[in-house]
Structures are given as structure tokens and as C-alpha cells.
């Protein structure tokens, strides 16, 4: 990485000291050869900041901000004293600054875009502040606690400036499934989609009397908000948007007061981004049984001449291609385990911001809103309504 790529940052650092103004000016007017002058302008580096430095940022999504091409992590923020500075110290280059205060963080010189990696209950307030400061936003899923909140985030940030972290869209494995659909491995039409999850679907931090993922004020509901949103988005991306038909949400085990079982039915709609169009009335059924002690996670996409079967909540598990008689005739595997599962998506967002590459799999506010709306429909029977601030009137004590 050339220091020249960081001119704006260098200017701020150097001109803080009167004695080195001359040096900075000399540095800003480098001698260029005719060959260099004829080169196309170098795409800018994106100077990223992160708000929220917890579990997801530690390994999945933090390091890509300094490892991706064209990206630099210049500022990080969380409230606990000393913790942001501690995080900033591990960022190579020694230029990342840690903040404990949102206003100060947003004033960091040259900040272009911000990754919001806090819990969903804080997304709206933080995204509004980041957007008001004129920065682009890449926000974690689920974007809002309900569709009204997701729509408010989309409105505050703007469709062109909002990116959302449905990272599985960017996995090579997801692209492999798209290729199989495109090449007709299951026929020329999708006829149905079914998904079943038994168990917690790999949800983390589930210890203690009230994990945050089961507190509607922080997460928007039970585990379907955290885990189920990924699958609904993946079906949307691979097979098309889902029109809601009916759902049932209930509580199987006593304890936290939120739902732990959801059954959902819908129909696939036609969409221009899917590799294979669905048949008329292609049925979608999903079942999440978070109370089950079994471990089952299976997504089946059925077509006119066969089916694809796979674990949904994985970046690397094999994808099985079955014929009409349900016999496995191909296995697509050997997917590399990514060091940081969010890196491919963060590279794509960075490329999009730099204007160097536009990936078809980018996740934006519109698809996040479709998923939020489906989650609302799936859960409205349990919560009574899913309007703005429904968590304030929902009596979780009474449901225990
Ligand atoms: N895309 C994926 O595959 C994936 C995977 C896991 C999680 N996630 C999502 O990532 C988000 C974060 O989850 P997590 O598990 O990392 O949560 P977490 O471990 O609880 O971390 C949250 C972080 O946010 C900070 N924070 C909280 N409130 C804040 C505020 N008002 N201003 C600034 N910082 C604040 C916390 O630090 P302080 O308390 O010190 O401020 C902490 O560093 C959630 O939306 C989750 O669903 C996504």
C-alpha cells in the first residue's frame, strides 16, 4: 500500500504541526513521470469505521476491514472505557483510533463509511446518526427489530447508501448453488422450497437467564430473528421473493417468554435476479423448532427434474444434487473454510463504494426490508402486532 493512497489522512496528521507543513506540501506534490500521468486515476481507498466491537467483529467481520483490497480501518467505537483503544491497537499500520463517544467517532477525519455491528435494538438510532454525518452504512442483520424499523433505517440512510450484512450471499458455495440452478441441474423450473431447523442453529451467547437474542427489545423476538432471517434472505436471493401465506409461532418450552417454534408457508414470486424461475404456485415451507434437542438443518430446493439438498447455515457443507427418484447423482463440495466469513461481502461492499466492481450478490436495504416483513408476518400471531416499539407493550413475563 502506497502512502500516496492516503493523502487526505497524511495531510491532516502532518499539518497539525506547523513545523512540518512544508514537508507535507512537498509530499503532496510528488514528481510524476509522463508514463504515470497517463495512468487512469487510482480508485480511492475507503476509510472505514466500526461501531460495536463484540462477538461478530472479533473474527467474522472485523479483520476484513484492514485485509480487503482498497479498504482501511481508521476508527472504531464502543462505549466501555478502554475497549475501543484496545481493539484499535491490533489494527496493522498504527493509524486506527479508538473512541468511546459516537459524536467524536463520527468526526474522525476522512471517515467514508461505517459498519454498524451493535445489537439490532440500537441499529436505528446509530444508523440515523451515521447517515446524518454523511457517511455510507453497512449494518448487521437483522437490520431492524421489525419492518417499520427497517424501513426507517432505509429511509434515513437512503437506498443507494445502505448495505446490509446478509453475508451468505457472497459465499462461493451460494454461487455454486446459483450455477447449479442456472445450468438446469434440477430442471427448468423451481417447484418448491422447504427448510427445517431443529436446535439452536449455531446461535452463540445463549447462556444466562436472558440471552440478548431472546429479548425482543434487543433482538426483535426469539431466535428466528437472529438465525431465521439468514435462511429467508437466502431463499429470496436464490429462488425469488416469498409471498406470505400463513404462519404459526408458539412457545414449546417454559423460560424466556419469546416464541421458540415457528412454522411458515408462502409462495415464490418471479424475480429477475434468480437463476431459475419458479413454477406458478411454487410452495415454500419453513419450520424452526429451536426447542428441539435434535440437530437438523436442511434446505431443499425442488425442481421439475430433481432437487438440491444442503445444510443452510453453513459456508462450506456439501450440496447434494438428487434426481427425480431422490437418488444422489452429484455432490458439490470442497469449499474452502474462510478465515473471516464476512470478508467476501465486505470486499464487495468496498468495491462497490470505490466504483471498481458491482457484485450481483450485494445485500441492500430493499432485500433486508422484504425479510423484515416476512419475519413480522411469521411472528404477528405471537406478539399481537409488530408495529413500531411493539416490544414495549409485549409482556414477556406473562408468557413465561
Ligand atoms: N452476519 C452474521 O453472520 C452475524 C453473526 C453474528 C452476529 N451478527 C449480528 O451482529 C450484531 C452484533 O452481534 P454481536 O454478537 O457481536 O453482539 P455483542 O457481542 O453483544 O457486541 C455488541 C457490541 O456493540 C457495542 N455496543 C452496544 N451498544 C452500543 C452503542 N449504543 N454504541 C456503540 N457501541 C455499542 C458493545 O460494546 P459496549 O457495550 O462497550 O458499547 C459491543 O462491543 C447483531 O446484529 C447480530 O445479529 C451477525
Structural description of this entry:
Among the domains are: 1-42, no CATH class; 169-332 and 364-399, 2-Layer Sandwich (Dihydrodipicolinate Reductase, domain 2). Helix content is 33%, strand content 22%. It has 15 helices and 14 strands. The chain has helices at 7-15, 21-28, 34-37, 55-61, 64-67, 83-89, 102-106, 123-132, 147-157, 172-182, 216-219, 223-239, 343-354, 365-383, 390-393, and strands at residues 46-51, 71-77, 97-99, 113-116, 136-139, 162-164, 190-198, 242-250, 261-268, 278-289, 296-303, 306-310, 319-323, 328-332. The strands form two sheets. The protein has an eight-stranded mixed sheet, covered by helices on one side. A six-stranded parallel sheet has the order 3-2-1-4-5-6, with helices on both faces. The longest helix has 19 residues, at 365-383. The radius of gyration is 23 Å and the shape is globular. NADP nicotinamide-adenine-dinucleotide phosphate is lined by residues 51-57, 60, 77-80, 83, 117-120, 122, 140-141, 165, 167, 226.
In short:
Residues 46-152 form the Gfo/Idh/MocA-like oxidoreductase N-terminal domain. This protein is an alpha/beta fold. The protein has 15 helices and 14 strands.
The second-level CATH architecture of the domain at 169-332 and 364-399 is 2-Layer Sandwich
Query: Low-confidence stretches at least 5 residues in length (pLDDT < 50)?
Result: 1-32
Residues in β-strands, percent: 15-25%
Strand arrangement, major sheet: 8-9-10-7-11-12-13-14
Distance between the termini: 56 Å
Q: Could you say which overall geometry the principal axes of the C-alpha atoms support?
A: globular
Order of helices and strands: HHHEHHEHEHEHEHEHEHHEEEEEEEHHH
Class computed from helices, strands and strand pairing:
alpha/beta
Residue share in helices? 25-40%
Bound small molecules, by name, code or SMILES, are: NADP nicotinamide-adenine-dinucleotide phosphate
User: Which homologous superfamily in CATH is the superfamily of the domain at 169-332 and 364-399?
Assistant: Dihydrodipicolinate Reductase, domain 2
Domain GFO/IDH/MocA-like oxidoreductase: 176-309
GO molecular function, one term: oxidoreductase activity
Family: Belongs to the Gfo/Idh/MocA family.
Keywords: Oxidoreductase
Amino acid at each position: 500500500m502506497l502512502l500516496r493512497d492516503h493523502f487526505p489522512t497524511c495531510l491532516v496528521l502532518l499539518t497539525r504541526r506547523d513545523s512540518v507543513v512544508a514537508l507535507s506540501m512537498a509530499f503532496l506534490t510528488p514528481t510524476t513521470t509522463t508514463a504515470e500521468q497517463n495512468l487512469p486515476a487510482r480508485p480511492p481507498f475507503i476509510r472505514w469505521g466500526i461501531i460495536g466491537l463484540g462477538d461478530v467483529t472479533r473474527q467474522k467481520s472485523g479483520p476484513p476491514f484492514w485485509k480487503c483490497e482498497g479498504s482501511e480501518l481508521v476508527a472504531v467505537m464502543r462505549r466501555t472505557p478502554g475497549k475501543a483503544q484496545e481493539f484499535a491497537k491490533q489494527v496493522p499500520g498504527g493509524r486506527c483510533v479508538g473512541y468511546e463517544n459516537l459524536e467524536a467517532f463520527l468526526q474522525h477525519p476522512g471517515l467514508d463509511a461505517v459498519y454498524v455491528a451493535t445489537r439490532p435494538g440500537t441499529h436505528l438510532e446509530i444508523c440515523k446518526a451515521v447517515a446524518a454525518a454523511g457517511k455510507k452504512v453497512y449494518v448487521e442483520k437483522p437490520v431492524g427489530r421489525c419492518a417499520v424499523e427497517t424501513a426507517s433505517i432505509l429511509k434515513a440512510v437512503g437506498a443507494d447508501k445502505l448495505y446490509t450484512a446478509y453475508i451468505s450471499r457472497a459465499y462461493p458455495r451460494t454461487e455454486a448453488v446459483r450455477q447449479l440452478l442456472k445450468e438446469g441441474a434440477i430442471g427448468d423450473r423451481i417447484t418448491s422450497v422447504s427448510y427445517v431447523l431443529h436446535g439452536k442453529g449455531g446461535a452463540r451467547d445463549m447462556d444466562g437467564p436472558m440471552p440478548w437474542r431472546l429479548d425482543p427489545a434487543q433482538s426483535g423476538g426469539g431466535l428466528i430473528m437472529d438465525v431465521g432471517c439468514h435462511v429467508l434472505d437466502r431463499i429470496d436471493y436464490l429462488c425469488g421473493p416469498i409471498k406470505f401465506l400463513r404462519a404459526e409461532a408458539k412457545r414449546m418450552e417454559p423460560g424466556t417468554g419469546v416464541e421458540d417454534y415457528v412454522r411458515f408457508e408462502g409462495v415464490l414470486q418471479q424475480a429477475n435476479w434468480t437463476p431459475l424461475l419458479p413454477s406458478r404456485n411454487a410452495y415454500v415451507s419453513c419450520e424452526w423448532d429451536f426447542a428441539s434437542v435434535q440437530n437438523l438443518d436442511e434446505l431443499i430446493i425442488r425442481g421439475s427434474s430433481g432437487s438440491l439438498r444442503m445444510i443452510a447455515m453453513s459456508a462450506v457443507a456439501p450440496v447434494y444434487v438428487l434426481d427425480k427418484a431422490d437418488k444422489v447423482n452429484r455432490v458439490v463440495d470442497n469449499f474452502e473454510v474462510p478465515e473471516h466469513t464476512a470478508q467476501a461481502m465486505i470486499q464487495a461492499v468496498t468495491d462497490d463504494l470505490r466504483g471498481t466492481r458491482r457484485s450481483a450478490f450485494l445485500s441492500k436495504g430493499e432485500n433486508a426490508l422484504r425479510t423484515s416483513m416476512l419475519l413480522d408476518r411469521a411472528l404477528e400471531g405471537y406478539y399481537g402486532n409488530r408495529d413500531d416499539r411493539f416490544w414495549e407493550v409485549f409482556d414477556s413475563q406473562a408468557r413465561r
